[in-house]
Please model this.
Amino acid sequence: MATSNNIYEEIGVQPIINAIGSVTMLGGSTPIPEALEAMAQAGSSYIPLMELEEKAGSAIANMLSVPAAYITSGAGSALTLAAAAVMAGDDDKLIEQLPNTNGMKNEILIQKRQRYWYDRCLETSGATLVDFGTNDRTSPEDLENAITEKTAAVHFFMVEQELDPNALSLEATIEIAHNHNIPVLVDAAGQVYPLELMGKAIRMGADFQCVAAKYIGAPQSTGLALGTEKMIRQISKQSFVGYEGRRIRGIGRPHKVDRQEMIGALTAVKYWIQTNHEERLDSIEIRSQTIVNLLQNIKGLNATLINNSIGHQPFGVDITIDESIVGMNLQNIVDKLKENDPPIWTRVANKNAYDLNSDPNDHMEIHMFGLNSGEEVIVGEKLADLLG
Model:
């Protein structure tokens, strides 16, 4: 239970019940015990970080059946380093020149209907994002017409649980880009299950795919850059170990990953592959259904099971209300839950939380990712008391 954790209360920070899920601002992940134990062991020795990055990356690449891998300080870090890599390549002078992109191919193409909250990570390297297509659809011709002598890469946002029939597919994106000798970068941060999604874009022919390792029981501040040997080599040169080990001042110096985190990420990948995911999903579905059951027969409220097993947050509960019956709106409910002891954090969800153009939708989602065992009952009962 969150309330038993006094290490935060000692400094005046109150633990909460996290019913939102894997959000960065609430901590993002709960490292698995095996990762924590491995991290503690890793902290007892010093090692050359360049060698550890290489060996850990090789081990992860072998486990995920991709040519190469690199551990980064989160999926966002992987995006920034990949953007830098496609602009500067192996040229040390250009690596040190970034984020000044004068004289470089510096444009990364992105479908207009795929613009999302985290594409900003690509720009922090100095790259310029250029939209193609419209908000309604993207055609192969849109990508063909967008490619110029300034194009450094094409970006694709991969969400397998919500396939977009009006977006240009990853297959078509790879084919067109590679016909012009342009690399394809794929953000697949949450695509960790089914297991074949981890590295799927690379096996399809993309040059880079990022994964947020926090979703598989690694520390929140770790991510995986998967890709071709060329791409991962160039990312390595941009990284903090390249800055210190090679004495080349690239933009990746602030993107530090310590030895404990590298071992934690490596261990999490190993155990994620070995996990009995049928049992994992069954447990999450049962816990989600517990909340649904507790909220039945409340006038003006509709609670349904989110029927999804793909990605990083399977199942969960979708809640909608009739404000005229309940007497409050969803934001009122969110605020009142935070007044609980301990506070329960939820939020009003958007129809597409990654779409910068989307309007808030009239529903609230509850996910099991951040809930300790038994806290789903607390959340369900509190909601029932509040609205019943």
DSSP finds 16 helices and 13 strands in the chain. The CA atoms of residues 239 and 252 lie 4 Å apart. The domain at 2-28+276-387 is CATH 3.90.1150.180 (Aspartate Aminotransferase, domain 1). The mean pLDDT is 94.
